[in-house]
Amino acid sequence: MPIRNRRAAALPAKLSRSWLLINAAKEEDFAPGLASEADSVIFDLEASVPDDQKAGARQSVMEALNGGMTAWVRISPTTSEHWEDDVAALSRADGLRGVMLAETERPDQVTYTAMHLKAGTPVIALVESALGVENATQIASAPGTFRLAFGTNDFRKDVGVSADPMALAYARSRLVIASRVGGLPGAIDGPTPADADDAATAEACEVTASMGMTGKLSLNRAQVDAVNKGLSPSEDELAWARELIEAHESGASIGDGSYLPRLTRARKIASLADSYGLWNA
Q1: How far is C-alpha 230 from the chain's CA centre?
Q2: C-alpha closest to that of 19 among 35, 4, 38
Q3: Tens-digit pLDDT profile for residues 137-173
Q4: Is 154 one of the annotated binding-site residues?
Q5: Is 242 annotated as a binding residue?
Q6: How far is CA 260 from CA 237, 252, 255, in A?
Q7: Where is the HpcH/HpaI aldolase/citrate lyase domain positioned along the sequence (predicted)?
Q8: Exposure on the CB side of residue 110, measured as CA atoms within 13 A
Q9: Which of 75, 105, 123, 261 is the most exposed place for a label (fewest CB within 10 A)?
């Protein structure tokens, strides 16, 4: 039986930084993906699988999830003829961690999907269009929504903008703010190209983090280490947090009005570092 990376398996999905997409038609990639350092793994039944291969890919996913593997699954949009088959099958999947709903544009699409799965199955709303971005707050507040994710490539096709961070800043901000309003974990950013090297991935993660997003999709398991590092507290942040917390525990006095907010920030960094195995590294 394939063994899931134990560190990643123990990490709550609300804290997942790297979200590795694996073509569901390539079952030989399932086990290596699950053994990788990806915080969360998604078997992709949607964009990466041609229509004439979806039935076979869906069967492979079901055999994997009922055979000891655990993973998320990206499913077809509610407007697709394949959506009903996807949710009908996955409602019987033992190892399903949740689904990512492609082309989410309205809140009812998330709720409708959740209603067709086992009770409590989380749904990540993948926003890939102008309409989805404009409805992000309502989507984030819909029953069933677990996190928001940004489908950058399809969004660019929909609105005709470039990949320049400035061109995508408005959409990213909308998802970040909507996630906050909806009480969700941080939004998940779109992927870098599958052939991007560590330097390019790290640069992309700087944009992701600067926009307030806390996760990132990945198309290549060779990128997940760079994503995890890029979306974790930095060494400087860890040193600052440790120093402030130690000083506070030693009886440091409150100097000004910024002290308590800084202490809260330091404790959040410490909590994340502990979850990611960095605090005592």
Answers
A1: 14
A2: 38
A3: 999 999 999 999 999 999 999 999 999 999 999 999 9
A4: yes
A5: no
A6: 17, 12, 9
A7: 35-219
A8: 30
A9: 261
pLDDT at position 1 is 45
| Whole-prediction pTM | 0.93
Residue-level pLDDT at 213: 98
- Summarised one tens digit per residue, pLDDT across range 62-76 is 999 999 999 999 999
Backbone angles phi, psi at 101, to 5 degrees: -90, 115
Q: Is 52 annotated as a binding residue?
A: no
